[in-house]
Design a protein that fits this description.
Layout (H helix, E strand, L loop, with lengths): L1 H27 L9 H8 L6 H15 L14 H5 L11
Helix pairs in contact: 2-3
Length: 96
């Protein structure tokens, strides 16, 4: 009986870890990207703008530095602090 209780406890702990890992990834957006992931993430991020070329240029530059792209096509920058805090000389956000 003790062995069965151990298995149930282990499976419960493993399940909780996987749920936490999934939730963390949802909250964090696209954190911890590999450089090869930047272009597809930026393509989606810039899909709703009419200024695709500059959006892609800056998004890929920000992604290469921060290895993060916020989820969605607009907003959610707080999920990527590096991406969110990178500013131009005028104090505007450098990253789309």
């Amino acid at each position: 009986m003790a062995k069965s209780g151990y298995n149930v406890s282990f499976l419960l702990l493993l399940s909780m870890f996987l749920i936490l890992l999934t939730f963390t990834n949802m909250v964090e957006g696209y954190n911890n990207l590999q450089p090869r992931d930047c272009k597809p993430r930026c393509t989606y991020r810039c899909s709703a703008t009419s200024h695709k070329k500059p959006c892609m240029f800056f998004c890929q530059k920000c992604c290469a530095t921060c290895l993060c792209v916020p989820r969605g096509v607009y907003g959610h920058k707080q999920t990527c602090p590096c991406y969110n805090n990178w500013k131009t000389q005028e104090g505007k956000s450098k990253c789309p």
